[in-house]
Task: structure prediction
Amino acid sequence: MGIKDDAVEVRAQGWRTLAALHGLIESELERSLQAEAQLSVVEYTVLDALSRQDGWHMRMQQLARATALSASATTRLVNRLEDRGLLTRILCADDRRGIYTELTPSGITLLEEARPAHDATLERALAEAHEIPELATLVDALPRLHAHA
Result:
């Protein structure tokens, strides 16, 4: 294996480690959020992303990026959340083709109720991941990554 191949393998190993950490955390969050708030991780992510915006709304394509979903999957997700009364869609005043998605009061309430379970589960999952030698370095790097974002 040459130097170029070694660099590719190092990056690939880094990706596998990141994927392992993500999978561990996501499965713990999924169980917790379903039990506490009847929300999936991606549904929580949408509510959380909307709550962090001025005006509490986002365009559909912004939500797709925030959730790492395709446009059609984002539309299906928004439809489900809208059917549950957790968010609503409104037309953009400046661009008739633009649609914003906005939290409803029920969505805000559910998010506030779910956030403590989410945060406690995330903290616990990261602590557990830190005990796994292959993941500890990545867990340690998370605060530094956020500081540079």
